[in-house]
Amino acid sequence: MEKQNSRYRWVVFATVLFAYFLIVSQRTAPGLITDQLMVDFKVTASTIGLLTSVQFLAYASLQVPIGLLSDRYGPNLFLIVGALLNGTGTVMYSLAPNEYFLLVARLLVGIGDATIWVNLVLILSQWFKVKEFISLLGFAGMSGSLGFLMATFPFSAWIDLTGWRVAFLTIGILLCLCGFILYYVLVKKPNQLFKQEKKKKTTLEKSESTIVLLRRLVTDRQAWATFLCHFGLVGTYVGFIGSWAVPYGIHMYDMTRSEASQLIMIGLVGAIIGAPVSTWLSNRLGTVKFPYVTVHLMIFLSWVTVFLFAGKPPFYLLIILFLLIGFGNGASALTFATVRQSFPMKVVGVVSGFANTGGFLSAVLLPSIFGKILDHFPGNIGYQYGFMIPVIFSLLGLIGGVLIKEKQEGVATAIHVD
């Protein structure tokens, strides 16, 4: 029995997506308690921006190294360790006595988070056939969006009921347990079910040197196109949702925390729709570039609209814009469809890591810059100027979409393994 034809692959799929769902929920959940942290720990907006940025900085800086290691040694170990680190960091966050402890906790969460998506892509590549891969990426993106959704009104209501420390502690413990479940599902059980397949892999193919591979990576147009695509879509969305979206609703529209988190749910509904719809549309049209460029243009115009309304568009329009921006974030799964179609399997991990670095480099920069602008321009004017940042970043994403070169049959990619 082969992995790609077994029913067990769906157990792997469900378990990995559940882990991803939990981990993504903790990527932005701290944004719900931004104001509380500023009061409880007596810190400035810049400090809160630093807490968010250090998490995404760890994530972004480790994407390429994790991709290289996963390509060579397999994705299972890194996914398991990532879940355990994420859980440990979340537990520490819930027990933090001061802002320095919070900083270390978010650093651990960022390191754990760095291992998740790249290895999820590789695991799906190993367990599923190419024709299934793009559609399943859409469902994987949907599970991430559901994680973001949990970190809005449901998690906010939980915090209001029990306090933020209890909520984060519970999720942290659950993530640690998830790490042990992943070990059983990805390592122990497959070793029992697929012994013959394991024996077939008696020789390892020679890998290209790391330095040569990295040199090819950073000079490849397609790799940079995917980097910029993720920079423009994921970073602007995750960076804003994870730090300033709830305070934005509170200050600009006089909402309560729960009301502001419900507003963000509109964007998450768009993301949940965007992942499967965009991958389905790409399969239907037989192209990734056209739908992806269209999405990037839509996101750029959405952020421009928020900026032109001085950060406070009419409420009905705000709902539409958040829905569209969320749809774009869901459609970012097409970045990895591009990677899978454009590069050989032996380098999918490192190229996926490079592309993912773009999104989370943007997510590192946006909260910190946004926080500094708010500190410098108090009140509503700070948000108005702050929205220049996602406008610029989404423009870079649009440029990335235009730079994508559709793979043609018989044309070899620039990055290969000898």
From TrEMBL:
Membrane-related topology note: Multi-pass membrane protein
Signal peptide: none
One family name in Pfam for this protein: MFS_1
InterPro entries attached to this UniProt entry: MFS, MFS_dom, MFS_trans_sf, OPA_Antiporter
Protein localization: Cell membrane
TM region positions: 7-23, 43-62, 74-95, 101-124, 136-159, 165-186, 223-250, 262-281, 290-309, 315-336, 348-370, 382-404
Keywords: Membrane, Transmembrane, Transmembrane helix, Transport
Domain of life according to the entry: Bacteria
Domain Major facilitator superfamily (MFS) profile: 12-409
PROSITE patterns to which the protein is assigned, alphabetical: MFS
The name this protein goes by in its record: MFS transporter
